[in-house]
Design a protein that fits this description.
Elements (H helix, E strand, L loop, with lengths): L2 E3 L2 E6 L2 E5 L3 E4 L3 E6 L1 E6 L3 E6 L20 E11 L3 E4 L8 E5 L4 E11 L2 E5 L1 H8 L6 E4 L1
Antiparallel strand pairs: 1-2, 2-3, 3-4, 4-5, 5-6, 6-7, 7-10, 8-11, 9-10, 9-13, 11-12, 12-13
Length: about 140
């Protein structure tokens, strides 16, 4: 069911184009996804997602250690934090951690439940990430630009 477009195989399904050739990508009006070991997804809203398509296991909280847990400040409620220049989502509270998503826009807010300070840098955790951590999964960390 694929058609050739510019030497690549293209399938249109449910309003999206799935493109094969030199990796795979999926395109729609809002999102473009490409898979090449590490894949990326970009939306028209400036959101860029990165996913590791070479791994199908989800690390548990036991495998990530507890270095951050003693330093975590839980607010006990969800707070809105202003992000004037966007933010980056990391898979650990570290500059060197894998970037999962980058959001580049101004005058936005994020909903967070707590933070951990690493040196002079503050990494926030969303309520969703806290719930994932409670289920034994690795939480994501938000670094404000």
């Amino acid at each position: 069911p694929y058609n050739k477009v510019d030497g690549r195989e293209v399938l249109r399904q449910n309003g999206m184009r799935v493109i094969r050739g030199g990796g795979q990508s999926i395109e729609s009006r809002d999102v473009r996804v490409s898979f090449r070991g590490y894949g990326s997804m970009e939306s028209r809203y400036g959101v860029r997602y990165v996913m590791d398509t070479t791994t199908d296991t989800i690390p548990t909280k036991q495998s990530i250690g507890t270095d951050w847990t003693s330093k975590f400040h839980n607010y006990g409620t969800v707070l809105s934090v202003y992000v004037p220049n966007g933010f980056t989502v990391k898979n650990a509270p570290s500059y060197d951690a894998l970037t999962i998503k980058e959001v580049q826009y101004t005058n936005g807010k994020i909903q967070v439940i707590g933070h951990v300070d690493v040196g002079e840098t503050r990494f926030y955790m969303s309520k969703w990430s806290w719930e994932q951590y409670s289920r034994g999964r690795t939480p994501n960390w938000i670094l404000i630009h």
